[in-house]
Amino acid sequence: MAVTKRGLVLASTAVAVSAVTITGAGIHLSQGQAFFQESPKGLIDEVWQIIDRTYVDGTFNKVDWKATRTEYLNKSYANKEEAYKAVREMLKKLGDPYTRFMDPQEFKNMQIDTSGELSGVGIQLAADEKTKKLTVIAPIEDSPAFSAGILAKDIITKIDAKSTEGMDVNKAVTLIRGTAGTSVKLTIQRGDKELEYQLKRAKIEIHPVRSSYQKDATQGGVGYIRLVQFSANAPAEMKNAIQKLEKQNVSGYILDLRSNPGGLLFTSIEIARMWLKQGAIVSTVDRQGEQEREQANNRALTDKPMVVLVDGGSASASEILSGALQDNKRAVLVGTKTFGKGLVQSVRGLGDGSGLAVTIAKYLTPNGRDINKHGIDPDVEIKLSDEERQALSRDRDKIGTSADMQYAKALEVLTQRIKAQQPTPPKS
After folding, report:
1. What is the CATH number of the domain that holds 235?
2. pTM across the whole model
3. pLDDT tens sequence across 16-63
4. Does residue 112 sit in the same domain as residue 128?
5. Is 154 a catalytic residue?
6. Which residue in 143, 341, 354, 362 is the catalytic one?
7. Shared-domain flag, residues 171 and 238
8. Which terminus of the chain is more exposed, N or C, with fewer CB under 10 A?
C-alpha cells in the first residue's frame, strides 16, 4: 500500500472539505485484507503495522510500540466497534492529533469530500495540539458557517448542547454534518466571549480558485487570485486564472491564501512551479532523516511582481507555498502569522472499509525552516480586529477591495514593487 506523492495530505485534522487521494480505496482485497474484514484483531494489527513502518517519530512518542501491540492483541473484542475503540486508544498514545482512525462512515465522508461537494456547514476543524480543544481552522467561503460569521481560531465548545470536551475530531465532524436543510447549533468560545450559532446545513460546492482583474494606479492593473483549498483540481484552475490575467496584461499579482487550510502536497508543489522559475520549493524529512527536495522546473507562467496574503487560517499546503515564495524572494508576505502545521499525512483505506491517516514526515521550507507549531511570519504584518474580520465575513464582496485593510496594504506593497521594476526615464 505504497503512498504516492499525489496521495500525501497537508490538511488539518479531519478537515471537512480537503480533497485527498485515498490510497487503497476501491482496490480488490487480497486474502490478508479479507482476513482483516472478518477479524477485529486483524484490523488492530493492520493499523499497528502501518504505524510501525511509516510513522514519522521512530520513538513513537517514547512509547514501547511493540509492547503496545502485545497489549491490544491479548485482549478480546466482541465486534468491530470494540476494535475501533481500541485502535483509537492505541493511536492516542502517539500524542499526534493528525494521526487518526476513521470508521467506514467517517472514511466515506472523506471520500465524499474529494468530489468537491459536501453537505454540512462548511467548517474545517482541528484539535489544538496543546489544549486538544476543537478549533476552527477556517470557514469555507459561501458556506453557512462563513455567512454566519464564524472565524478562524474559534473554539467549538458544544454541538447541539453536547460538550466537545475530550471529543474526537472525527466524532465532531460527524455530528456537525448532516442532510441539507437540517440545522445544528454550535456554541463557540472566542476570547472571553461565548457565542451561539444556529446553522442550517447546505450542499457546498467548492471551487478552489477565484480571480479578477483589479484596476489601480499601475499601468495594466493588478491580478487578484484567491485560492481557498489545495484540492486536486486547484492546479488547473490556478493555471487558467494566471493565463487569463496575463492576456489582460496585468502588472503584478496579489495571491490570497487567507483562511486556506491546506490540502494535497503535490498540488502545493504544482502551484509553486507556476510562480517560481527556479529554486527549491519544499523538502520532506521522514523518520530515517531521508530528505526529498522538490524544485521549480523552469515552467513559471509569470515573473511579474507578487504579494501573498496570509493569516492564522493559512495552514499546511498554504504554508508550503507561501514559505517557498518568501524564501526565494519571489513574493512579499502581508497579513498575520500562519497556522503552523508542518507535518505530512498519508491517508489509506483499510481492509474493512475504514481508513487511517498517518503522519509520515515533516516538511521544511527552502531555507530549512521547520514551521510546525510556529507558523510563517509575514514580511509586513497587518492585523484585523474581530469586528473587521466579521464585517468581511458578513459582506464577502468587500474581500479583495479597498474596504479590506490587508488587501489595501498588499496593493500598496505591490505597487511599490512594480514601480521599483520600472525603468528610470532618461534625463533630458
Report:
1. 3.90.226.10
2. 0.75
3. 323 233 332 222 233 344 444 458 899 999 999 999 999 999 999 999
4. no
5. no
6. 341
7. no
8. C
